[in-house]
Amino acid sequence: MIKRMLPFILLTAALLDTAAGPAWAGPVVDPVIIETLAGEDSDAKIEAINRLVRDMPDQALPVLTAMAGDALYIAEGRLVTVDGDTVKDAVTGEILNPAPENPGTITVNNRVRSKIAECLSALNLFSKDRDARMKSATDLSENATAESLPMIEKALSAEKDSVIAVKLNVARSKMLLVSNDPAIRRKAAEDLTEDPTQSTRQLLAGLLLKNGDDFMEPDKDVRAAAAESVRSIDRQLALGDKLGQIFTGLSLGSLLLLTAMGLAITYGVMGVINMAHGEFLMIGAYAAFAVQTVFRSRFPEYQDAYLLAALPAGFLAAALTGMVLERTVIRFLYGRPLETLLATWGLSLILIQAVRTLFGAQNVEVANPAWMSGGVTVLPNLVLPWNRIVIIGFSIAVLAVMWAILNLTRLGLFVRAVTQNRAMSGCVGVPTGRVDTLAFGLGAGIAGLGGVALSQVSNVGPDMGQSYIIDSFMVVVLGGVGQLAGAVWAALGLGVLSKFLEGWAGAVIAKIIVLVFVIVFIQKRPQGMFALKGRTVESGS
Amino acid sequence: MTHIESVLTAREANEEDEIRSVSATQTNGHGGTIRTATGIYAALVFLLIPLAHLVIPADHGLHVSDYLVTLLGKILCYAAVAVALDLVWGYTGILSLGHGVFFALGGYAFGMYLMRGIGLDGSYHSHLPDFMVFLDWKELPWYWLGTDHILWAAFLVVAVPGILALVFGYFAFRSRIKGVYFSIITQAMTVAFMLLFFRNETGFGGNNGFTDFKRILGFSITAPGTRIVLFALSAALLLGTLYLARRLTVSKFGRILTAIRDAESRLMFIGYNPLYFKLFIWTLSAVICAVAGALYVPQVGIINPGEMSPSNSIEMVVWVAVGGRGTLIGPVIGAFLVNLAKSWFTVSFPEYWLFFLGAVFVIVTLFLPHGVVGLWKKMKTMTKGGAS
């Protein structure tokens, strides 16, 4: 019997082989699902996707990935992906040869698309790659629907990584908030404190609202738990805000520090208030722009390294300009501080106009290198941008170098000597003239470095120096002159203070309060926080 | 006193002698010259220019155009500011980088009256100024009350900047902030005020400020007659300021001011308290600036927070520096020279104006510490020396 049937079976098999051969090689997608996917009804499609994920999770991943990329088609009763001329079976990945004619498209609208994204996230929860799991857990904790719940619970029981587990639990708790069992709802409301974001806060606060006479959440205990969670989230959010303000304050302070350090030195050594100091910032920033332009055209492959080359360029450009100005103009105004103020203001006007003529009046674009973009997420509502972190670190480094120059080198010794007593220093052989030039160059150069740093966080234009100069004068007034310590404390203090006030009263009022604060402060300490000790009679300029 | 300070003081003393000799020749009175100069000035501003503007027809060669009258009126206001600034800087040694605030506050105070004077003729035909309608304000803020009366507005012109100067000066001088520290603080003050007035919520029109004025005491603000009256008032202000400044500087009070400039510590050792002398001259100077600002606004037809920018205040200082500080005629000459140059440059070579202004700052401080007047005196003594 079998023998007689064998040829027939073989024949059938051969027929089948040519007809639908490769489909035998792997599992087959239910034709109903295929048909539904090809149909027009979005609800049915979503239902089909849910079934696909539930029944055959392993096969669903490649199919949904293709569908999300609009690369899924139907040909000869099966799902295929089309990439140029190559047509592959969506489930097995086998290349179909010859390629089927006219594959039918599968339309994906936005609702279906978000469903696919959710399912993909859920499927990726079982990925071997930690980052992929992390990303899916994050996505799901932000937006997931009840259908993903079984997947999430399964993943949660298998997840070893505690951070991902917390995220999954948040996603799960958000869904369980609508559970029928009050105990589960309460547990969910309590667990949601682990996700201190605005959206979760809103979700929880929504439970406490009244709809007509009834609360949205009928159970009293659940409401209490939700209210407690809202309070806890508020505390965590406020903490994030505070830390964020301190951080931006520190980064503003470190920029002020880079500006004020140079001012403090030149004022300390020469008694010169340099109104053109802000323009050295601008020169540094434009040096960064110039270096960037050179790197873009000459060494595009090292583009991200331009910043490292910009640092010495900014320093040298500003320091050379500074030394030239000191030799040609400022030198002749020693002992006349008020006139120096006017002359340096004139110099700043000339520098601004010169840059305008050279580079144009518009702001120029200085890009962050790739390694400085993005940030570190410390709290859900606190992201510290890399460029600001780098600037804080950079100004600490510059401060350290300055400290070393002033305290460990011969030049530093001379600078300190001239600051304390110019005439005596001259008598014991300190070349005061050269020290003046070098100190001025150093101060200008540091401002140039500050300009390079500034180019990473703000606009670069001819007027940019003017907006920082008054703040940095305030730092000098507050901190006292000729002292690094004073400049450091005053810069950081003013930076943090003004950022806090900004959060509380707005930028303009904050500026005014800071100014009033400085005026009141110097009522008490006219020499600044860190006055040089010694018998200095005012020289009554 | 350490060695360095004695060196410095000696160096300063030299300079001060120069300044003193300059101001001495100034004040020693060429009574006749001054009287003649005043007469020529009065004839020019109160008779000739008004006649040339109002009577001589527009196509005649001697006609003084609207533009010129406005420009001159503007510069007359600036000159009064320069003299006021010279009182504190040239005579008392206090360099203010914030006089623009007093000027602008005076302008704003009078501008409030002018805004109210627009009445229902604004674009929104409301009794509120246009910018308030735009901000959807329903009624005037309290500090606008009474500003429709010119006398109250005139009182505000004097009182607001005066009180600001008094309070600011009291705290600054009491803690003996001086020299560059004082200059920087005044500059910070201008910036603070500028930022404040840039805000819409402050109630002074935000960054557009006040403009589109229609009438003053019922007279159209663009009428030639109104223009000439404002011009003559500005001229009278300058004359009055010069008269007051001269009376002050030749008096014993003026001597004390110069002493504060030259040796404040020594003055204190003798038994004077410089605080009230400084405070008086500082407040007086601020009030003169404010009145000048109040006359300036109806002539140029606009006031906005840009007037309070630090660069404006420093430009005022350069008028004094160019003319020659420590003299009375110097600031007037300086104001005219710099502003005429500015009008010419900004029309003909706008991109070179900042180069020019910057160079003026540097050249004057390096080579002409006593300004044009000092240069003239030097040349006069040189030619005299050559002749004898």
Overall description:
The complex is a heterodimer of chains A (541) and B (388). Chain A is mainly alpha-helical and 541 residues long. Chain A has three domains: 110 residues, no CATH class; 94 residues, no CATH class; 224 residues, no CATH class. Helix content of chain A is 67%, strand content 5%. In chain A, the strands form three sheets. In chain A, strands 3-2-1-4 form a four-stranded antiparallel β-sheet. In chain A, strands 5-6 form a two-stranded antiparallel sheet. In chain A, strand 1 and strand 2 form a beta hairpin. In chain A, helix 11 packs parallel to helix 15, helix 12 packs antiparallel against helix 13 and helix 16 crosses helix 18. Chain B is mainly α and 388 residues long. Chain B has one domain. Chain B is 73% helix and 2% strand. Chain B has a two-stranded antiparallel ribbon with strand order 1-4. A two-stranded antiparallel ribbon of chain B has the order 2-3. In chain B, helix 4 runs antiparallel to helix 6. The longest helix of chain B is centred in the middle third of the chain and has 27 residues. The N terminus of chain B is likely disordered. The interface between A and B is large, with 50 and 59 residues.
Strand content of chain B: under 5%
What is the alpha-carbon Rg of chain A in Å?
A: 34 Å
Largest sheet of chain B: 2 strands, antiparallel
Describe the biggest sheet of chain A?
4 strands, antiparallel
Rounded to an integer in angstroms, the radius of gyration calculated over CA atoms of chain B is 22 Å
Question: Major sheet of chain B: order of its strands?
Answer: 1-4
What's the helical proportion of residues of chain B?
Answer: over 70%
Mean of residue pLDDT of chain A? Answer: 80
Unreliable stretches of chain B: 1-28
**Quaternary form:** heterodimer
Q: What's the number of helices of chain B?
A: 14
Which structural class is indicated by helix and strand composition of chain A? mainly alpha
- Distinct helical segment count of chain A: 21
- How would you write the strand order of the largest sheet of chain A? 3-2-1-4
Q: What global shape of chain B is seen?
A: globular
The fraction of residues assigned to DSSP E strands of chain A is 5-15%
